[in-house]
């Protein structure tokens, strides 16, 4: 296929050739006598709520296009979050919502020079891909040794070409949050015409009381967009629903670059139903947070150092042992996410999966 398109002189935009590929979490190897667990995509390990499954099954009009404005979902979210529905824009996962933000605010200036998007690194692996896809260039600011954003360095990296800054809290894959005071201080250092996206994909798992909550900030900061998802806490990763929250002056622009009908009515109905059963969702989230507490305490007991884990995952800064550890996890039928020679991210999964992960760590000779 490659040879054929070359022969026809067809090639993708230059910017695309340089993009890294998104590596989706691999399912675990099957190991004789062991139940396999997938701890590589920060998914919710619990099965869907029965009410959500019923809502999906009851959806009979899929021969029709969905409501392009996702009116029912935005109304339900508005009531749930205490924000006006006009401030909410939905998308196919928060990744869809993010691509919409970048397509709207970052690309090339009128003279063809690429805009800049500043983000921490390592952070969510989709950022460089989405930024490149939009035609902009990424400016990566290394996270500190403890896995936190270096906000001083990020503010210093903002130039007159910067259109967007991404903040990820809790940061995927390293785990720590940004505090409210951190973000307020940062916003004070960034020009008002730079869009600051606060990616809160894991917000529901956060237990630190001083953590930022973008919903409490965006009304006083017209350049802030909060990114949330139904993929993690609500366990609807397979249905693809996410959303942006920002002042109407920004959401108006975002609606222009929306992929029409990005959220199917099945996904919309499932998300509405999940919000209507928020008590059950919260109880499940708490059970995952409890498992996270057990895993982190277990790692500490074993003498492992891990960064603050406020999402549904832990980060093992294993350096040169990264790939080896991931391979050993595979032998225990656990799939984990290895990042080069930096470290391994392990999602909090089923109780049995977490226990097996701790056993693996107990026997592993190189600990961060
Ligand atoms: N942001 C962050 C920080 C994530 O980790 C993820 C998923 N891994 C996403 C956004 C995208 O999730 P989704 O598109 O499923 O909402």
Automatic annotation (TrEMBL):
The modification N6-(pyridoxal phosphate)lysine is found at residue 232. The keyword Transferase applies. One of its GO terms (molecular function) is aromatic-amino-acid transaminase activity. Keywords: Aminotransferase, Pyridoxal phosphate, Transferase. It is an enzyme of class 2 (transferase). SUPFAM superfamilies: PLP-dependent transferases. It catalyses: an aromatic L-alpha-amino acid + 2-oxoglutarate = an aromatic oxo-acid + L-glutamate. InterPro entries: Aminotransferase_I/II_large (IPR004839), ArAT (IPR024892), HistidinolP_aminotransfase (IPR050106), PyrdxlP-dep_Trfase (IPR015424), PyrdxlP-dep_Trfase_major (IPR015421), PyrdxlP-dep_Trfase_small (IPR015422). Pfam families: Aminotran_1_2. It comes from the Bacteria. Residues 37-359 form the Aminotransferase class I/classII large domain. Coiled coil: none annotated. Its EC number is 2.6.1.57. The keyword Transferase applies. PANTHER family: HISTIDINOL-PHOSPHATE AMINOTRANSFERASE, HISTIDINOL-PHOSPHATE AMINOTRANSFERASE 2. Aminotransferase that catalyzes the conversion of aromatic amino acids and 2-oxoglutarate into corresponding aromatic oxo acids and L-glutamate. Homodimer. Belongs to the class-II pyridoxal-phosphate-dependent aminotransferase family. This is Aromatic amino acid aminotransferase. It comes from Arthrobacter echini. The lineage of its organism: Bacteria, Bacillati, Actinomycetota, Actinomycetes, Micrococcales.
């Amino acid at each position: 296929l490659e040879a054929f398109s070359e022969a026809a002189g067809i090639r993708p935009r230059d910017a695309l050739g340089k993009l890294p590929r998104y590596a989706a979490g691999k399912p675990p190897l099957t190991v004789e006598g062991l139940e396999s667990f997938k701890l590589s995509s920060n998914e919710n390990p619990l099965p869907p709520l029965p009410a959500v499954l019923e809502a999906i099954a009851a959806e009979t009009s899929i021969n029709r296009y969905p409501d392009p404005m996702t009116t029912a979902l935005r109304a339900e979210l508005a009531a749930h979050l205490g924000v006006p529905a006009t401030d909410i824009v939905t998308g196919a996962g928060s990744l869809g919502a993010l691509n919409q933000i970048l397509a709207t605010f970052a690309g090339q200036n009128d003279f063809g020079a690429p805009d800049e998007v500043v983000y921490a690194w390592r952070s969510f692996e989709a950022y460089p891909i989405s930024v490149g896809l939009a035609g902009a260039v990424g400016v990566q600011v290394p996270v500190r040794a403890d896995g936190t954003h270096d906000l001083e360095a990020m503010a210093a990296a903002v130039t007159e070409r910067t259109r967007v800054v991404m903040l990820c809290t809790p940061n995927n894959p390293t785990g720590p949050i940004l505090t409210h005071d951190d973000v307020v201080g940062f916003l004070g250092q960034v020009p008002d015409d730079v869009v600051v996206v606060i990616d809160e994909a894991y917000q529901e798992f956060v237990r630190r009381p001083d953590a930022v909550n973008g919903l409490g900030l965006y009304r006083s900061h017209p350049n802030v967009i909060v990114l949330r998802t139904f993929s993690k806490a609500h366990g609807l990763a397979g249905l693809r629903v996410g959303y942006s929250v920002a002042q109407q002056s920004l959401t108006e622009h975002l609606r222009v670059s929306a992929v029409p009908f990005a959220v199917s009515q099945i996904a919309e109905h499932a998300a509405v139903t999940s919000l209507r059963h928020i008590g059950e969702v919260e109880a499940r989230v708490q059970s995952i947070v409890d498992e996270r507490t057990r895993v982190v305490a277990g790692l500490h007991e074993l003498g492992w150092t891990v960064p603050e884990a406020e999402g549904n995952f832990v980060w093992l800064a294993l350096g040169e042992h990264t790939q080896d550890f991931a391979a050993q996890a595979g032998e225990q039928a656990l799939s984990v996410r290895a990042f080069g020679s930096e470290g391994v991210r392990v999602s909090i999964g089923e109780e049995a999966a977490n226990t097996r992960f701790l056993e693996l760590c107990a026997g592993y000779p190189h600990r961060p």
